[in-house]
Amino acid sequence: ITMKNLIISMLFVMVVTSCTPPPPDTSAFDAGMEKYNKNAAIADNAYNLFISGDIDAMAAGYTDDAIWVGPGLGQDSLPLSAMVEGWRGWHAGFENFSFDNRQYYPGVDENFIPDGGVRVYGVWNFAQKETGKPVSVKYYAVSQYNDEGQQTASLEWFDQGGAFDQLEE
Predict the structure, then answer these.
(1) pTM value?
(2) Which of 5, 56, 88, 133 is 20 to 30 A from 163 in CA distance terms?
(3) What is the pLDDT of residue 96?
């Protein structure tokens, strides 16, 4: 009887272990998260460069053929030169920038695997130079990067009209 129990037990263990699926392959996810972590730090630094007004250093973090989709509703993608012009315009009219409550999340591909892209949420606070009037706007952006850590695309969303409405109140 003991030999019979031993054989049954062994067969049971073999059946159970053969039904256990292999662990999932997480290498693509892990590689995407590694890229995301590197690029999130680059994005964070870029926002700090904007705050300090170092537009040239910020622009150096983009590829020459980077595209920008700004906050204007229905806006087409624009080249890096238009993005830099926009940054300079904000600094010409406003001061005391801060980007608060920053929250970074990974971008994902069509299979929801991190692709190295960075999504960010936060609140921009600044003041109009002419009047000192404060402005605060919620912000969301999606950025893509190449393997060298340069931004290739920047898509931004915030209520640009609402920012200027605050100046009229």
Answers:
(1) 0.83
(2) 56
(3) 97
CA proximity to 45, closest of 102, 124, 95: 102
Mention every residue, 6+ apart, whose C-beta is less than 8 A from residue 35.
Answer: 114, 115, 116, 145
C-beta neighbour count of 116 within 10 angstroms? 24
- CA-nearest of 102, 141, 103, 109 to 125 is 102
pLDDT per residue over 61-114, tens digit each?
999 999 999 887 667 788 999 999 999 999 999 999 999 999 999 999 999 999
> What is the DSSP code (8-state) at residue 72?
S
The answer to whether 98 and 65 have CB atoms below 8 angstroms apart is no
Which ranges of 53-139 would DSSP assign to H, the alpha helix? 55-59, 80-93
Contact 146, 152 (CB under 8 A): yes
Supply angle C-alpha 92, 93, 97, rounded to 5: 90
The two tokens of residue 72 are 């204007």
Pairing of strands 62-69, 114-128: unpaired
* Residue 17 confidence class, pLDDT cut points 50, 70, 90: low
Residues 6+ apart with CB under 8 A from 120: 43, 47, 102, 103, 104, 105, 139, 140, 141, 143
